Amino acid sequence: MVHHASLDELSDELFSCVAGFLPPADLLRFQCVYRRTAALPTDSSCWRDLCIRRWRNQPRFALTPERERWLEANQPLSWQRRYFFFESDARRTIISDFELQFLCWYMNFTPQAG
Prior knowledge:
Elements: H1 12-19, H2 24-33, H3 35-38, H4 42-55, H5 65-74, H6 79-90, H7 97-101
Helix pairs in contact: 4-6
């Protein structure tokens, strides 16, 4: 006799493990399909890891320890919200007058900067 496991029989650890392998769009869908997956603590694990992987090669958005401390102090958002905020910010083509007044220029003349 074949036993078919229901989703209720699977552990939260298994759901979290699966969530850790998903790209952002699929992680959103995964969190929407089942109330247990929506309640998983994916923010600090999955979404933070997605932020690190997505921006590691982009100096403006790279998640350094200093930047992470600044985010915690100045942008008290979930990692999921931060991910989508910085995705939209990276696609911006204009800068506001306010941002221009307080813009700090950093020059990077190393070969890694391109």
